[in-house]
Amino acid sequence: MIRLEKRPQPSQLWTVLTPVMAVLLTMIMGGILFAILGANPFEAIRTIFWDPIFSAQFASYSRPQLLIKAGPLILIAIGLSIGFRAGIWNIGAEGQYIMGAICGAAAGLAFYPSDSALIFPLMIVAGALGGWAWAMIPAILKTKYGTNEILVSLMLVYVAQTLLGSAATGLLRNPEGMNFPGSRNFKQWDAAHNAELIAGTGMHWGVVFAFVAVIGAYVLLSRHILGFNIRLTGEAPRAARFAGVNPARIILICLGLSGLLAGSAGLFEVAGPAGQISIDFNSGYGFTAIIVAFLGRLHPVGILLAGLLMALTYIGGELAQLMLGLPGASIQLFQGMLLFFLLAMDVFVNFRLRWGKREAA
Question: What transmembrane ranges does the database entry give (predicted)?
Answer without folding.
Answer: 12-37, 66-84, 96-112, 118-141, 150-172, 203-221, 250-271, 277-296, 303-324, 330-349
